[in-house]
Structure formats: C-alpha cells, structure tokens
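Hey, why these numbers?
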Amino acid sequence: MAAMTRFSKASAISHIRRCLYSSSAAAAAAAESNPPVTSPFGNYKITRRDPSQRNVQWVFLGSPGVGKGTYASRLSNLLGVPHIATGDLVREELASSGPLSKQLKEIVNEGKLVSDEIVISLLAKRLEAGEAKGETGFLLDGFPRTIIQAEILEGVTDIDLVVNLRLPDSVLIEKCLGRRICSQCGKNFNVASINVKGEYGKPGISMAPLLPPSSCMSKLITRSDDAEEVVKERLRIYNEKSQPLEDYYRNQGKLMEFDLPGGIPESWPKLLEALNLDDVDERQSVAA
C-alpha cells in the first residue's frame, strides 16, 4: 500500500503557519492599505471576504453514505452557491493520469481516509479556480475531517454554519450497499429499500429505493469502495475521528445536528425548516 502522509502535531502547526501567514512586511502593508485579506493555502491564494459581500459558506458533516452530497447539491441549487465535494475531487483525480492517481486507488479501495496533504491540495486548487470564475460562497462536503483541517480552513476563510447529518450505522451500511451508478450517464441510484421500526422512543426510518429508468438498468455498476467490509471500515474510522471535530464546531456555536427522518421526501422539508429556508420552486410546483 502506498504510504500515507499524516500531519504530526508539530508538523501540522508548522504547516498551518506556512499556509496561513504571510511575511510581517506584507501583513503591515496590508493593514495600512486595508485591502481584502488574502492568505496562502498551500501554493494557492484564496481571498477572505466580508459576509456582506459573499454568499453562505457552510460545511456538511456526516458519515459516509448519509446523503451529504444529495442535500448539499439541493441546497447549492436553492442558494446559488457551488457544492464542493472532496469525494468528487478525489474521484476526478482517480480518473486522471495525474501523479496522485495510483496512490489514491490503493487508499480508496482499502477504505482508508485520504491524507490531509492530498485533500488540502485538491481543495485549494478547486477554491482558487472557483474564485477566478467569480464564485462567492460554498457548501463544503467531506472537508474538514479533522481539527487540524478545520484550523487550516478557518485561517483562510470563514465558516458560517456546520450541518451534521445523522443516521444509524445499520441504515448507513444498507444504504451504501444499495448504491449504484449508471456507467453510461453517470447518474446515481440506490436499490435498497429501508424500513426500520421505531423503538425505545426513537422514530422509525423509511427510505424508498431510488430506482433507475429501464435505459440504465443493464448499465448499473457498484463503486469499488462500497463493498461491505470496506463500508464498515470507513464507518469505524469516521466515528473514531468525527467526535473531536463535532466538539470543535459545537464549542464555537456553529454546529447544527440533524437526524434524518427518512428519505428525501421526508427529510428535505424538515431540513429546510431547520435551516430557516424556503424552497420557492418546490412550493410553487405543489401549488400548481
């Protein structure tokens, strides 16, 4: 297996300092002229904007398979901000012939988490490209995963809200094992039909399958990282590492925990309510 680069505490602090601070002379000049503050993020530059001059900057947390991408994508369309999923960035790199491709294939196929160094490099490249296109605001999906990553991110931009989507592990495993992708059109589907009875005061969870059209049925494939043992290992690692990050944002008063009551029809309206948002398009379609 390819070696994975992890930040030790000392090297992380050094990395954060390199990433977040320019020279003292540059800082003094910036303070005098008072332009928008730009800080280095690896080898890339991302501008920190005043909240009144940008859109929302939110982070979505949640176990693998919980649906972060689904809900972040819907909110992206509703709010007019880009949905940036680090999982997609990794998969794009996997599909390329870039220098990280071989290393990433071994890491992902074994259900391991991609190193901080690789994820930060991919995200920095995406944020800078978005800024060059005039994007303001974002919904981050899959980053940060650790307190160190959160501190690096916080050093270059502000996070307004962290939405933590939750489902029981048993439901997550069933969801992941049911995921399918059409090899032709690239759309995602799920063949799992989930019905969990409520007990001990907890509500039941019901999720209908998201079946493909007949044109896609014979072209469905399963992601290599959706094998049962790989899914269980991903959940184990995530659960082990997520609590400190959740506590980090909870202590800042930025964490909103949301227990999904079911599939999209049940969860989407309640999530909008929790976020104090209104899906105008959906309301108009219902009224029509």
